[in-house]
Design a protein that fits this description.
The chain is α/β, with parallel strands linked by helices. The protein is built from 16 helices and 13 strands. The strands form two sheets. The protein has a seven-stranded parallel beta sheet with strand order 3-2-1-4-5-6-7, sandwiched between helices. Strands 10-9-8-11-12-13 form a six-stranded parallel beta sheet, sandwiched between helices. The chain is globular, with a radius of gyration of 20 Å. The chain starts with a strand and ends with a helix.
C-alpha cells in the first residue's frame, strides 16, 4: 500500500501546539502516512527558534511561505498563491488545517479548488460573532472540509445544524489538551530556576496571570485603557504577571499606558516557561481561545475579556467566566474566585490526551 502524503498547515504559534500531537501520531503510523509541515509565515518567526521546536518535539517546517503583513485580503492572497505552488510541487493526498486563522482558511480554499482531500481539526466552534475574522474563517473552512474533527459537543451540534453529514463529523477531543498533558509530563526534566519568570513567581505568595492580544482589545486606545485600568484595580488585591504580546506592547508604548506597581510586565514566554507560570497561578485573565481550554483542563480559574466565546464548554463547566470587553465587574469576580476553594472539575469527554491518535486512526479508515 502506498503511503498517503499529508500537508500540515500552520501559520502561528498555537497551530504548532495543535499539530505537535498529530505529528507524533503520524510517526506512529509511518506505514500509512508521510507528512510535510507547511508554515505560511502568517506570523513572524522570530520566536520560532530551535528551542521552540525541541520543546514540542517536532521538526522545523519543510516549507516557509511569505504570508506575513498587509490586510486580511493581501495576506490571504499571498498565502493562497504560495500554497498552490507548494501543492503543485509536492502533490499531497490530504491537507490538514487546524483552528481558525487566515492561513487555515486560505489553504483550505486552495485545497478544495485543487480537488485535494481537506481535513479540519477543531471544527464546529462558533462564537456567533461575525465581526470576528476568525468566525468567518471557521464557517468557510467547515463548509468545504471533507472530514471535520470536533473538540466539544457544541461543535457537533453546530455542524449538524449547518447541514453537514454525520459521516463527515467525528468527535475526537482536543489536540491542544493532548499537547498540554504531553508537555506537563516533561516538566520535571526542565530547570526553570535561572529564569526571570521563575524568580518573579517565587517572590509572589499568590498571583494572577494576564494575557491580551486580540486587535479588538489592543488596537483601540479607549478599550485598552479601560482594560488596563481594571487590571490595575485587580492588582491591588492580587499581583499580576503580564507576559506582553508584541502587538500589545507596541500600543502600550505608543499610548503611554501606565500600570500599577503590582502589575509585572515581562516579555512573551516560550511555551514551557509560560506553562510553568500560569499552571501555578490563582487565576488567568485572557482573551486567548486556547488558554480557555488549557486552564479548564488543569482546573485553573479563567476570566475571558471578550463578549463571547467559541468554547462554551468552558463556561458550562464553570472554569471560565466572560466579563466582556472592556470588562464589567472584573474586581468582584476576582474576589469571588479567590475565596472559592471548590476544585471538582470533570473534564469534557475525550479530553484525555489521545485525540490525535483518534484522528489518525480515522484517517487510516478514510
Amino acid at each position: 500500500m502506498n503511503k498517503k502524503l499529508i500537508s500540515l498547515v500552520v501559520g502561528a504559534r498555537p497551530n504548532f501546539m495543535k499539530i505537535a500531537p498529530i505529528v507524533r501520531a503520524l510517526k506512529n503510523n509511518s506505514d500509512n502516512f508521510s507528512y510535510r509541515i507547511i508554515h505560511t509565515g502568517q506570523h513572524n518567526n522570530k520566536e520560532m527558534n530551535d528551542v521552540f521546536f525541541r520543546e514540542l518535539e517536532i521538526p522545523p517546517p519543510d516549507v516557509y511561505l511569505k504570508g506575513n503583513g498587509g490586510t486580511h485580503s493581501e495576506q490571504t492572497a499571498r498565502i493562497m498563491i504560495g500554497f498552490e505552488q507548494e501543492c503543485v510541487k509536492s502533490k499531497p493526498d490530504i491537507v490538514l488545517v487546524v483552528g481558525d486563522i487566515n492561513s487555515s482558511m486560505a489553504c483550505a480554499i486552495v485545497t478544495k479548488k485543487m480537488h485535494i482531500k481537506l481535513i479540519h481539526v477543531e471544527a464546529g466552534l462558533r462564537s456567533g460573532d461575525r465581526e470576528m475574522p476568525e468566525e468567518i474563517n471557521r464557517i468557510l473552512i467547515d463548509s468545504i472540509s471533507d472530514l471535520l474533527f470536533v473538540t466539544e459537543p457544541t461543535g457537533l451540534e453546530n455542524l449538524l445544524f449547518e447541514g453537514h453529514s454525520p459521516d463527515e463529523i467525528h468527535y475526537v477531543g482536543n489536540v491542544m489538551i493532548d499537547n498540554l498533558f504531553y508537555q506537563l509530563k516533561k516538566m520535571d526534566n526542565y530547570d526553570f530556576s535561572s529564569l526571570m519568570s521563575h524568580s518573579l513567581k517565587s517572590s509572589l505568595d499568590r498571583y494572577g496571570v494576564f494575557t491580551i492580544h486580540r486587535p479588538s482589545n489592543v488596537d483601540s486606545y479607549k478599550v485598552l485603557e479601560r482594560i488596563i485600568k481594571s487590571i490595575n484595580e485587580v492588582s491591588k488585591i492580587l499581583p499580576i504577571i503580564f507576559p506582553v504580546h508584541p502587538r500589545t506592547r507596541l500600543n502600550i508604548e505608543k499610548w503611554k499606558i501606565k500600570f500599577d506597581s503590582n502589575v509585572h510586565l515581562i516579555t512573551s514566554l516560550p511555551y514551557m516557561e509560560f506553562l510553568s507560570v500560569w499552571k501555578d497561578s490563582a487565576l488567568v485573565m485572557t482573551d486567548s481561545g486556547g488558554l480557555q481550554e488549557e486552564t479548564t483542563a488543569l482546573g485553573v480559574p479563567c476570566i475571558t475579556l471578550r463578549n463571547n466565546t467559541e468554547r462554551p464548554i468552558t463556561l458550562e463547566l464553570g472554569t471560565n467566566h466572560l466579563v466582556g470587553s472592556p470588562p464589567v465587574g472584573l474586581l468582584k469576580l476576582v474576589n469571588d474566585i479567590l475565596i472559592d476553594t471548590k476544585n471538582n472539575i470533570t473534564l469534557p469527554k475525550y479530553w484525555d490526551g489521545k485525540s490525535a491518535d483518534r484522528i489518525v486512526q480515522i484517517l487510516v479508515r478514510n
